[in-house]
Amino acid sequence: MTNIYDNANEMATVLRQTPQYAALQAAFGKMKADPIAYGLFQQMQKLQSELQQQQMANQEIGDEDIKKMQDFSAKLMKIDVVTELMNQEREMNGLMDELNQIVSKPITDLYRD
Hints:
The chain is mostly helical and 113 residues long.
């Protein structure tokens, strides 16, 4: 019997060879090379993490936090390398959705019978 984890690791290796991954990697590299864009990106990630922790702790997210997140998002969307990264993320997410449908098909089929 095959080890499902070996298959998953093989899939991860093959995923790194896809055009979508290469484009995402290139877009991230460009964004990372721009100190302003990357600095804002890191601040946005930190804020997202803090808000997620608040949600997990059942703490209400305040209007100020929401406004701060919207402001960061608006700033980031004005930077070309960030919008390119987001476009490539959408492409990668599309591929991941397709793969998830394939992998979860046995479970979907099970409940259809």
